[in-house]
TrEMBL record:
GO terms for cellular component: endomembrane system; proton-transporting ATP synthase complex. Belongs to the ATPase B chain family. The keyword Manganese does not apply. This is ATP synthase F0 subunit B. Its main location: membrane. One of its GO terms (biological process) is proton motive force-driven ATP synthesis. Signal peptide: none annotated. Gene3D superfamilies: 6.10.250.1580. F(1)F(0) ATP synthase produces ATP from ADP in the presence of a proton or sodium gradient. F-type ATPases consist of two structural domains, F(1) containing the extramembraneous catalytic core and F(0) containing the membrane proton channel, linked together by a central stalk and a peripheral stalk. During catalysis, ATP synthesis in the catalytic domain of F(1) is coupled via a rotary mechanism of the central stalk subunits to proton translocation. It is found in: Endomembrane system; Membrane. GO terms for molecular function: proton-transporting ATPase activity, rotational mechanism. InterPro entries: ATP_synth_B-like_membr_sf, ATP_synth_b/b'su_bac/chlpt, ATP_synth_F0_bsu_bac, ATP_synthase_B_chain. The chain crosses the membrane at residues 36-56.
Length: 191
């Protein structure tokens, strides 16, 4: 039983299998066959026209749409970046302005506090002067009142002395001595 087991339908194998298996037949893919060449070109052109008619326009439209979307996104990003830079510059300007205003307010508040302090000091000085002047006036009034009381007392004493003198007849020297004592006594109260 010398049977050869082979591939079913192996008798009809293409020549290329024989070349690979060690035969000397040329490879049909490398061999130029004018019929196959024409059919390949014809198939390619038909496929090209079908693709150009049905697929090329939608592909180009999709690519153009994608390109426009990307351009629009880039423009929006550039606008957003510009807007962000503008907002940052504006916020920096606002912060600088706020700092400047705060500094101005602080300086004004300090100046106002110093002015109020100076006004209070001046008012306190004026009030102290008024109190001192009123105290001096009161002292002068009390002094004048005391001097008047002393004078009244001197007058009363003089009257008493005069009564005694009248009751008792004094000599001229006694009268002179009594008058001088009264005047000395009166001068002591005047100071």
């Amino acid at each position: 039983m010398d049977q050869y087991w082979g591939i079913p339908g192996g008798e009809d194998l293409h020549e290329s299998t024989e070349v690979q298996s060690g035969g000397h037949a040329p490879n049909p893919l490398v061999k130029l066959d004018p019929g196959l060449f024409i059919w390949t070109i014809l198939t390619f052109l038909i496929l090209f026209f079908v693709l150009a008619k049905f697929a090329w326009k939608p592909l180009l439209a999709a690519l153009e749409s994608r390109e426009n979307t990307i351009k629009s996104s880039l423009e929006d990003a550039e606008k957003a970046k510009t807007e962000l830079e503008r907002l940052n510059a504006e916020s920096e300007e606002i912060i600088a302005k706020a700092r400047s205003e705060a500094q101005t307010i602080r300086v004004e508040a300090k100046s106002a506090a110093e002015k109020i302090k100076a006004d209070v000091m001046v008012q306190a000085g004026e009030d102290a002067k008024k109190i001192r002047d009123e105290a001096e006036k009161q002292i002068q009034v009390e002094k004048d009142k005391a001097i008047n009381e002393i004078r009244q007392e001197v007058v009363n004493l003089t009257m008493t002395v005069a009564e005694k003198v009248i009751k008792k007849n004094l000599s001229k020297e006694d009268n002179q001595s009594l008058i001088e004592d009264s005047i000395k006594h009166l001068k002591g109260y005047d100071a």
